[in-house]
Design goal:
With 257 residues, the protein is α/β, with parallel strands linked by helices. It has one domain: TIM Barrel (Alpha-Beta Barrel), CATH 3.20.20. It is built from eleven helices and eight strands. It has an eight-stranded parallel β-barrel with strand order 1-2-3-4-5-6-7-8, surrounded by five helices. The N and C termini lie close together (5 Å). The relative contact order is 0.15. The structure holds 2-phosphoglycolic acid.
Length: 257
């Protein structure tokens, strides 16, 4: 039984005050939720106030990135230890924007996953193919490499702190979502990779989230898929009403997750 996880990635949006207003609205609108894990990831500068404002609510706070060293001469970076210090439960790593805009490799992302786990934090580990990779038939090879290299060296026990997010790059911020079937097919494939790289139990227990233009209008269908355990939401997570509706997705068949 995998508990659904609904995560919001606020990306580079919102001042401290705007972040505080959004988290207050979410905390109020979601205070009774117990059957879904809710996570939001604000910008670094808002983390502390959002953690404070979310206290007592079912919403956990994560960062959008981290650097894989506890401290040192790394100008401009933030370590897992410091994220923990402000009350974060973990961080998103390997987001396609970081892979594409900042040239992050699978090996570097693996270092970040390792560093988060070493700090006893959770890693929301993102993977996904570009449109070109999908159309040229390389999608499965890409996902295979991303999982193999990004999660290299982890023990099955450590995988208990890892959440995988499948985000096809062509669906991020484009309004173009993968169909329920396309998403389920990729998720089932990724679950198979977890079995091959780790074991049956890891495959069974690791939550796999879908991300890419998730909205109130398409979340129910996605969440009804057997291997989709939650969603990672960008744009729609910035609008309280939309994110609340996404967390309150309609369950078509109970006991699917
Ligand atoms: P989107 O972003 O929902 O705006 O497509 C998803 C993400 O990048 O995590």
């Amino acid at each position: 039984m995998r508990k659904p996880i609904i995560a919001g990635n606020w990306k580079l949006h919102k001042t401290v005050e705007e972040s505080r207003q959004l988290i207050k609205a979410l905390a109020e609108g979601l205070k009774d939720v117990t059957d879904v894990e809710i996570v939001v990831a604000p910008v670094f500068t808002s983390l502390e106030s959002v953690v404070a404002a979310a206290k007592g609510s079912p919403i956990a706070i994560a960062a959008q990135n981290c650097y894989p060293a506890p401290s040192g001469a790394f100008t401009g970076e933030v370590s897992p230890a410091l994220l923990k210090d402000v009350g974060c439960i973990g961080a998103i790593v390997g987001h396609s924007e970081r892979r594409q805009l900042f040239g992050e490799s699978n090996a570097f992302i693996n270092n970040k996953v390792q560093a988060l786990l070493a700090a006893d934090l959770r890693a929301i580990f993102c993977i996904g193919e570009t449109l070109d990779e999908r159309e040229s038939g390389r999608m499965y090879d890409i996902l295979t490499m991303q999982v193999k290299e990004g999660l290299a060296g982890l023990t099955p026990e450590q995988m208990a702190k890892v959440v995988v997010a499948y985000e096809p790059v062509w669906a991020i911020g484009t309004g173009k979502t993968a169909s329920n079937e396309e998403a389920e097919e990729a998720h089932a494939f990724i679950r198979g990779l977890l079995q091959g790289n780790f074991n049956e139990k890891v495959a069974e227990n690791t939550p796999i989230l879908y991300g890419g233009s998730v909205k109130p209008g398409n979340v129910d269908g996605l969440m009804a898929q057997e291997d989709i355990d939650g969603v990672l939401v960008g744009g729609a997570s910035l609008v309280a009403e939309d994110f609340i509706r996404i967390v309150r997705f309609e369950r078509t068949e109970p006991a699917q997750h």
